[in-house]
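Chapter review: from sequence to fold.
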Amino acid sequence: MRVIIGGSSLAVLLALIIVIHTSVINKSVREDEINRGLENATDYAIDVCSSYYRYIQADDNDDTYITQLMEFFCMTLNSAVKTEGDITVSLAEADVDDGRFDFLVKQEYTYSFGQKKGICVCQRAVLLKK
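The token string follows.
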């Protein structure tokens, strides 16, 4: 009887360790995937926007100019992101005259075992030239 209880306890403990280990590994892998993917997609979108920035015609209206640039940035970023999650893009600072822009990209994602949520933030300050 003692052997059965000891063996059952050991089996439950082993199963619990495997589940915890898998959960930690899954979260770590998912975070790395999101971080790398979001950073690469943001850098790609900025590279593409630097070319697009020269051709925007906004008739000296900064708001229209920024709106067109943000629409193009979001479209490019959306095509480059390969992971699932909710992405929020904001412009922390914009100076159209100097070409300075500060993009803030935040992605909220879920990972397995309880559908816990994680957040990845990528911020890039760029100088775009005409």
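Two observations follow directly from the output. The beta strands are 86-95, 100-111, 116-127. The two ends are 82 Å apart (CA to CA).
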